[in-house]
Amino acid sequence: MRENRLRTLWREDKAVVNGWLAIPNGFAAEVMAHQGWDSLTIDLQHGVIDYPAMVGMLQAISTTPTVPVVRVPWLEPGIIMKTLDAGAYGVICPMVNTREDAQKLVAWTHYAPRGTRSFGPVRALYYGGADYAQHANDTVVVFAMIETAQALDNLDAILSVEGLDAIYIGPSDLSLALGCSPVFDDVDPKVAQAMAHILERATAHGVKAGVHNGVPEVALARIAKGFRFVTVSSDARLIAAGAQQILREMRASPAAAPAGAY
Questions:
Q1: DSSP-derived 3-state class of residue 200
Q2: Least packed by Cβ within 10 Å: which of 6, 7, 35, 66?
Q3: DSSP 229-246
Q4: Is 197 a catalytic residue?
Q5: Distance between CA 44 and CA 22 in Å, rounded?
Q6: Which of 34, 46, 135, 205 is catalytic?
Q7: Helix 51-61 vs helix 26-33: angle between axes, to the nearest 10 degrees?
Q8: CATH of domain 5-251
Q9: Contact, 229 vs 203, CB < 8 A?
């Protein structure tokens, strides 16, 4: 079966540099994948991507060594299993708030006897290999998002669920849950303290910790603290930032036409 480089990098105690995909387009995903990201996450929760678009994006990512990950819309078995059947090598599930939630997530992402995932890896066989069924349980990576006050209260119970490989912090939702403004990087001290606590407890349980970031400087600082999966920006944000930079330089010249002149 094809290796999951997330697990390989983690065994070497290296951080995974993850990109984020919100644009429902195979070519855009292919362009991103060819830039050398360790992994790319297709966002079915907040992006404008549906299932057929996701399949095409997974196929595009498959033209490179980049690991395909999907954030599913919710803790629901149907979409989780269909995402894995399509060839995702990692699943990020939002709003995991209790030990029971984490147990369901692990069950729905693993074949029996370790779980209740239904067998039908229609595309995963082509991506992972003919022996997919024999090795999927030990290859696919399962992330639970920790982003609510309830999840913080139940943190050790969630982290103790066998088969949960990693947690993923959504700083914006965590900030809202703690009564603060939703941001990625310059979080309120209360949120920073909560994130440090999540990282410490995850490390104690042998669970990898991931986090969403807006800029490389913050992601690098969080790697230094012990995070081993860091998302930096997204395809949509990178397009906007690149266009803004070009336009700033163009508009700074008196020879350039003013905005809206075309």
A1: helix
A2: 35
A3: EEEE--HHHHHHHHHHHH
A4: no
A5: 8
A6: 46
A7: 30
A8: 3.20.20.60
A9: no
pTM (2 d.p.): 0.95
User: In one letter, which amino acid is 230?
Assistant: V
Tokens of 210: 């991931």
Task: Point out which residues pair with 68 in neighbouring strands.
Answer: 40
Question: What tokens were used for 152?
Answer: 């913080």
Whether the CB-CB separation of 185 and 214 falls below 8 Å is answered with yes
Token pair recorded at residue 147:
């982003």
Residue written as token pair 């081993």: 228
Q: With contact defined as beta carbons under 8 Å apart, do 163 and 106 qualify?
A: yes
Q: How far is CA 75 from CA 38, 58, 109, 199, 211, in A?
A: 25, 21, 11, 22, 19
pLDDT per residue as tens digits for the range 68-122: 999 999 999 999 999 999 999 999 999 999 999 999 999 999 999 999 999 999 9
The letter for the amino acid at 46 is: H
**Phi-psi map region of 260: left, alpha, beta (phi>0 left; psi -120 to 50 alpha):** left
Domain layout of the chain by residue ranges: 5-251
Tokens read off for 27: 């070519």
1-47 tens-digit pLDDT:
999 999 999 999 999 999 999 999 999 999 999 999 999 999 999 97
Q: How many CB atoms lie within 10 A of CB 137?
A: 16
